[in-house]
Design brief:
CATH superfamily of the largest domain: Mur-like, catalytic domain
Number of domains: 3
Helix content: 25-40%
Number of helices: 14
Largest sheet: 10 strands, mixed
CATH class of the largest domain: Alpha Beta
Strand content: 25-35%
Number of strands: 23
Structural class: alpha/beta
Length: about 475
């Protein structure tokens, strides 16, 4: 008899990815969500998974064998309450993944404040290219697979280890369920301040995670990150391998060349040359991610030549420096960056890839942490990496007390005082109009948000196209920046 599952909050990245795994395993799958939008809605539609928009007790009338409740759902969610009322088995996303898909496989978990999505995606693709047929669940759409998850039939299952809480009835971080045999810790920096009020509590949580790695397992830890060095205990039972850039302990990478087509780098292990590799990715943050992946695959027995082919063939992840379109010489890039460090490194990476371009950053403070005043100065510093900056209104500003809320107007003024052309514009149509009428050929517009941002990417491309068809140019040429 075929099993059935209903996912509450199915369009979240993790939940949608889990739905795809259940579908691949032969389950009947349905789900519901308040907001249904790409790229997850497109992925689920391709799989033939039915989505009910909004939450209603009636969505459970088909009596599924299992109800998975995502962390978007609150205790008063109508479907969560109805599942309990009907006596249906209820679980969380992370528990469902562990119970149904990680059992019997080598769990490889990439965790950290930054870089975990890219690192997990690189691991999944490199293992696939090496013929190991891994399963994976990653918080982004892998362009090589056009998917965020895959069942696979090989020994390894790669998971992006999210530190956010699991569900309203399970406040543990998701990654505490993932049974890591191999773990990567990329970085530890204050984030999710609604859950972790200080860096000490954050480090304690990551420390609890890496203690899950068994004695026969491995931890790959970024020595270049001060937060990681402060987190990894000396008495860890697992084998610890450090990695980083330049000189230092463990496995190290050195950048040889970087440009629009990517970068070439050399890897040394324990002071000895291991090989030279090429990747279409750019930026120091991505070089760190690549270094960790190289070391993991070496440990799994993949040779340098096979590994080189896999890294060179990686096509990236949607919403990570993803080019959404180019009209009249103006390139629109979408990136998920929402932490100050991620914003800074993303802009630096784009600067390397688009040498000589004028870089325009459009930033939406949307996450709980990015809407808070605690990061005001850090965002200001990070955004100076751009030539021009547009700061949108704080998303759902009323949820944050005024005294604790990030101030976009002050941020724009501070940027201007520091010599960066900046403006604060609340509404998406006004941002689009401003950009379309002031951009010039050769500009790169980086849209930085972890949400749909009102469909700004397509609206901007459409506005540029209209100007192109009217004037033959995206906008009047400008002589100053």
């Amino acid at each position: 008899m075929v099993s059935s599952v209903h996912l509450v909050g199915i369009c979240g990245t993790g939940m949608g990815s889990l739905a795809a795994l259940f579908k691949a395993a032969g389950w009947l799958v349905r789900g519901s969500d308040r907001d249904v939008y790409p790229p997850m809605s497109d992925q689920l539609a391709r799989l033939g998974i039915e989505i009910d928009q909004g939450y209603s007790p009636g969505h459970l009338d088909w009596a599924p064998d299992l109800v998975v409740v995502g962390n978007i759902a609150r205790p008063d969610n109508p479907e969560a309450l109805e599942a309990e009322h009907r006596g249906l088995p209820v679980t969380s996303m992370a528990s469902a993944l562990a119970d149904h898909f990680l059992a019997g496989r080598t769990s490889v978990v990439a965790a950290g404040t930054h870089g975990k999505t890219t690192t997990a995606a690189l691991l999944a693709w490199a293992l696939h290219a090496a013929g190991r047929d891994p399963g994976f669940l990653v918080g982004g759409v892998l362009s090589n697979f056009a998917a965020t998850s895959r069942l696979g039939d090989g020994p390894e299952f790669v998971v992006e280890g999210d530190e956010y809480h699991n569900a309203f009835f399970d406040r543990q971080p998701k990654f505490m369920h993932y049974r890591p045999e191999i773990a990567i810790l990329t970085s530890v920096e204050l984030d999710h301040i609604e859950l972790f009020p200080d860096v000490g509590s954050l480090r304690d949580m990551f420390r609890s995670f890496i203690r899950l790695v068994p004695a026969h397992g491995r931890l790959l830890a970024c020595h270049d990150d001060a937060g990681v060095r402060a987190t990894v205990p000396e008495d860890l039972q697992a084998t610890v391998t450090w990695y980083g850039l330049g000189d230092g302990p463990g496995t190290r990478s050195t950048l040889l060349e970087a440009g629009p087509g990517g970068m070439t780098f050399a890897v040394h292990r324990q002071g000895r040359s291991f090989g030279t590799f090429r990747s279409p990715l750019v930026g120091a943050h991505n070089l760190l991610n690549l270094t960790a992946v190289v070391e993991v695959l070496i440990g799994l027995g993949v040779n340098a030549a096979t590994l080189a082919d896999g890294l060179a063939g990686f096509k990236g992840i949607k919403r990570r420096q993803e080019i959404r379109g180019c009209v009249g010489g103006v390139t629109v890039v979408d990136d998920f960056a929402h932490h100050p460090t991620a914003v800074r490194e993303t802009l630096r990476g784009l600067r390397l890839r688009h040498t000589g371009a004028r870089l325009v950053a459009v930033f939406e403070p949307r996450t709980h942490s990015s809407r808070r005043a605690v990061f005001q100065e850090d965002y200001t510093v990070a955004l100076t990496e751009a030539d021009r900056v547009i700061i949108a209104a704080v998303h759902d500003a009323g949820d944050i007390p005024a005294w604790d809320r990030l101030d976009p107007t002050r941020m724009a003024a501070d940027l201007c005082r520091q010599g960066t052309d900046a403006a604060q514009i609340d509404k998406v149509p006004d941002i689009v109009h401003h950009l379309a009428t002031t951009c010039r050929r050769g500009d790169v517009i980086a849209v930085l948000s972890n949400g749909p941002f009102g469909g700004i990417h397509q609206l901007l491309l459409a506005a540029l196209s209209r100007l192109q068809s009217t004037d033959g140019q995206p906008a009047p040429e400008m002589t100053t920046s």
